[in-house]
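Hello Y.,

Per our agreement to keep a running log of every chain we model this quarter, I'm adding this entry. I've kept the format consistent with earlier entries: sequence first, then predicted structure.
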Amino acid sequence: MDKTKLKELLEEIAEGKCSPVDGFAHLSQMPFDDIGCAKHDTHRFLRNGFSEVIYCEGKSSDDVVRIAQSMCEKEHNVFGTRLKPEHIEALRASTSKIDICEKSRTFQILNRDREQISGILAIACGGTADIPVAEEAWRTANFFGLEATRVYDVGVAGIHRTFAHLEELKSADVVIAVAGMEGALPSVLGGLVNSPIIAVPTSVGYGTNLGGLTPLFAMLNSCSEGISVTNIDNGFGAACAAMRIIRRLS
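Predicted structure for the entry above:
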């Protein structure tokens, strides 16, 4: 949508020719911005509350930079996941405003204030090897305006560590539980916490972890009621699911 069309729509609303509800629906369905290497969905936030995020894996450095620059030109905030070293080098050369977290393989560029989400999200992970996935969840939530508490290295091999943070986890509106190996942490928390639990299996573990399939199957077959499970290593998806729940609570 260009300025002329937007002005015309606003004038129609002001003159009573178009209702605010119909105007909002019209804006929500506006087209994308075709920049050649990608089609940026510029109005996604109006539809579901999430601006489009750059999934960097599989994209060239030039394309990642081009997409980010196009979004910045329109004063959008930019978030990217699954960075590779070559992406990091190119992005740092393109702008000084960038904030890169190599551990979570994410970046953000903030061009305007974020709308804050009220609510309590807790992110727990079994071991320190699971932290990159947990940090992807934390960085995603933070980018979209939701502060989250981090409770790391509280796996079931030393369950007293979990109990030391139990009150903190019980007070959360949503808990994200990240675990590799046999993936037992979400099941344990599911028997102790009454908040929604979003389980994230990780590819951390020895051979029969099977790249995350073992914890994935364990979480899907949990005897704790009502646990939701994301894809393997998908901290981003877990954070977005948590925000959908928390937004409905406010």
